[in-house]
């Protein structure tokens, strides 16, 4: 039976077509009924995944090709969710490395391939989107070989099969234009190139938990691969905890994967991936093993977080009006729940009891967590992201990133100028002759905070940015912060069109008319460096006197609607983003204008402070 199982992970950079390819594989394997209505990108089951068009959580599925069961793990393509990829690679015996036939290998391609090569997993290279007009399959294949050599791949690892696919139409070719009309060449390559799982069904039980799910009926469900032995429903087993203890328990339910469904099973043998119910308090990385002959697996090694944010209780005058969960106890409980399933996040207590320091891989990962919490009914405030600094041998080190910027030739100058101010160093520059230039930079992680919005503005929305953690470097000193001030409401009330009309020439506004504001709330971006307290609730004086000409019509410039990521990028050290289920507001940490230090005083204090 073990010979007829293959376990693979599909890994790639964001938006190279992983989930679309899994879609096509499931459809062509006959998993769905002929009359079954199936959504596009069916593996992206989460609302946020569907809205953003990206995969956030690694998910399992399985299909059958002839007599072989193929377990597939669909992984995220964004570097912020690298912890999901690291866990997924523990479950599989080989990987499908997907690369866009036009864009070629990008930073996350390098990251996931590096992890796969370190785990000695054989790769199958899939060049996807070969139907693009700007596809350059030969050059991209050469770039992939260069990447393998750069990552010190062995001779065996360089002998990989290459397939050319169009995931959208569900076609795979062994050679370009070979007449294939389906994905059969891909299925054949998986069966022939990916080794069957090793493991002894008669040996001592070893199942490492790499993912968790929850059911209202069954409680916590552990998902993991059976490395050795055989899992049986009702059997007494032990959970080898991360701290070394052994806790006895019984397996109440056992499931295997088939398409989008889970089939109940009486036993699961070595090599297969199973979902197991009956465990209370089990965590990712722990091992389910024999009580009599325990054999715990090695613990999962996850890369350290590089970014931190403060999550605190909402203390604004409008607090508690929209959210259901508003206390520090609610926020703490939700963060503790997140820790159970998200191994790349850390939570630390801060100096006050109502604030928590949350550490993660990047702005996007923490923004997804905040967005998920607000949709669940939580109200909170978050501070400006800050990097995690470590000290080694008396030296202060900070994380550095490999940044790839792809932009039109005409914007190269402005991109170089912007990145130069953030202490970035140009490492490589390539012009493919298509009118776009690709540049690689080494940049401190701090320099990425707020960079995406600024570069998109500078390049009129044409720049593409991808970054990847690239190690630690000596602390580079202070960076230039936001060079504009804020327009801050100086009294509570509702905004009026008359007040907005008079203020719009002072800078860019974030609110429209009829919006409730409070003292200390940020209502716009000042064109100058200093903050400006403004009366945004001012009404036009009504008199019975009439001018000879008609009143001048009030025409308002459309205000900028801030998304959560834009708001997090905008704020400085003395500001918070207020997040509620219905609103995203910006505010000063100190609401009272008389007690609030001026922006120029803070800038001078930060310059005078010792490094």
What does this structure look like?
- The chain is globular, with a radius of gyration of 27 Å.
- The longest helix has 14 residues, at 137-150.
- With 611 residues, the protein is α+β, with helices and mostly antiparallel strands.
- Helices cover 22% and strands 31% of the residues.
- Helix 10 packs antiparallel against helix 11 (451-458).
- A hairpin with a 2-residue loop joins strand 23 and strand 24.
- Strands 18, 19, 20, 21, 22, 28, 30, 32, 33, 34 and 35 form an eleven-stranded mixed sheet that branches.
- It has 14 helices and 35 strands.
- The model has no long low-confidence stretch (mean pLDDT 84).
SSE layout:
Elements: E1 5-12, H1 18-28, H2 47-52, E2 59-65, E3 68-74, H3 82-88, E4 94-100, H4 107-118, E5 123-128, H5 137-150, H6 155-158, E6 162-166, E7 171-173, H7 184-193, E8 206-215, E9 219-228, E10 230-232, E11 236-240, E12 246-250, E13 253-258, E14 261-264, E15 267-269, E16 273-277, E17 287-289, E18 307-312, H8 328-341, E19 346-349, E20 355-360, H9 363-375, E21 380-382, E22 386-387, E23 390-392, E24 395-408, H10 412-421, E25 425-431, E26 436-444, H11 451-458, E27 464-474, E28 486-489, E29 493-494, H12 497-503, E30 507-509, E31 516-517, E32 521-526, E33 532-534, H13 564-570, E34 575-579, E35 584-588, H14 599-608
Parallel strand pairs: 1-3, 1-4, 4-5, 5-6, 28-33
Antiparallel strand pairs: 2-3, 6-7, 8-9, 8-17, 9-16, 10-15, 11-12, 11-17, 13-14, 13-16, 18-20, 18-21, 18-22, 19-20, 21-34, 23-24, 24-26, 24-27, 25-26, 28-32, 29-31, 30-32, 32-35, 34-35
Helix pairs in contact: 10-11
């Amino acid at each position: 039976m073990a010979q007829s199982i293959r376990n693979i992970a599909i890994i790639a950079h964001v938006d190279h077509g992983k989930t679309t390819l899994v879609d096509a594989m499931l459809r062509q394997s006959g998993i769905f009924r002929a009359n079954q209505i199936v959504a596009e990108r069916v593996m992206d089951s989460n609302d946020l995944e569907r809205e953003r068009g990206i995969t956030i959580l690694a998910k399992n599925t399985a299909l059958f090709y002839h007599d072989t069961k193929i377990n597939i793990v669909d992984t995220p393509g964004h570097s912020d969710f690298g912890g999901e990829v690291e866990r997924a690679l523990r479950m599989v015996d080989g990987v499908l490395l997907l690369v866009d036939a036009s864009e070629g290998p990008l930073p996350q391609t390098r990251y996931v391939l590096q992890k796969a090569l370190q785990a000695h997993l054989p790769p199958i290279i899939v060049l996807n989107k070969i139907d693009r007009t700007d596809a350059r399959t030969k050059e991209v294949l050469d770039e992939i070989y260069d990447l393998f050599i750069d990552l010190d791949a062995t001779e065996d690892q360089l002998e990989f099969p290459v397939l050319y696919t169009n995931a959208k139409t569900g076609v795979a070719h062994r050679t370009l234009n070979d007449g294939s009309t389906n994905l059969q060449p891909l299925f054949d390559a998986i069966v022939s190139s990916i080794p069957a799982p090793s493991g002894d069904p008669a040996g001592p039980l070893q199942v490492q938990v790499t993912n968790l799910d929850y059911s209202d009926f069954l409680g916590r469900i552990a998902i993991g691969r059976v490395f050795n032995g055989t899992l049986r429903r009702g059997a007494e087993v032990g959970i080898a905890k991360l701290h070394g203890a052994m806790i006895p328990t019984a397996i109440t339910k056992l499931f295997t994967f088939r398409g989008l469904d889970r089939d109940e099973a009486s036993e699961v043998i070595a090599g297969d991936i199973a979902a197991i119910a009956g465990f209370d308090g089990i965590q990712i990385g722990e091992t389910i093993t024999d009580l009599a002959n325990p054999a715990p697996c090695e613990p999962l090694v996850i890369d350290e977080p590089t970014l931190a944010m403060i999550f605190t209780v909402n203390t604004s005058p409008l607090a508690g009006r929209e959210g259901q969960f508003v206390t520090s106890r609610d926020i703490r409980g939700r963060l503790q729940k997140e820790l159970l399933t998200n191994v790349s996040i850390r939570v630390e207590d801060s100096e006050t009891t109502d604030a928590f320091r949350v550490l993660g891989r990047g702005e996007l990962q923490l923004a997804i967590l905040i967005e998920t919490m607000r949709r669940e009914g939580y109200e909170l405030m978050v501070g400006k992201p800050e990097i995690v600094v470590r000290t080694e041998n008396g030296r202060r080190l900070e994380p550095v990133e490999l940044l790839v910027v792809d932009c039109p030739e005409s914007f190269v100058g402005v991109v170089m100028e912007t990145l130069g101010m953030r202490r970035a160093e140009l490492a490589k520059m390539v012009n493919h002759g298509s009118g776009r230039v690709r540049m690689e930079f080494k940049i401190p992680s701090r320099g990425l905070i707020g960079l995406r919005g600024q570069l998109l503005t500078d390049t009129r929305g044409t720049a593409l940015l991808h970054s990847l953690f690239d190690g630690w470097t000596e602390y580079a000193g202070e960076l230039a912060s936001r060079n504009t001030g804020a327009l801050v409401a100086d009294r509570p009330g509702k905004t009026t069109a008359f007040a907005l009309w008079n203020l719009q020439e002072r800078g860019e506004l974030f609110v429209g008319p009829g919006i409730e504001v409070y003292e200390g709330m940020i209502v716009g971006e000042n064109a100058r460096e200093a903050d400006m307290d403004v009366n945004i609730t001012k009404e036009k004086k009504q008199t019975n006197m009439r001018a000879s000409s008609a009143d001048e019509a009030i025409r308002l410039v459309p205000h900028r609607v801030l998304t959560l990521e834009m708001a997090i990028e905008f704020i400085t050290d003395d500001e918070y983003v207020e997040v509620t289920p219905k609103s995203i507001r910006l505010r000063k940490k100190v609401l009272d204008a008389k007690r609030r230090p001026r922006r120029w005083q803070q800038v001078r204090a930060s310059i005078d402070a010792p490094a």
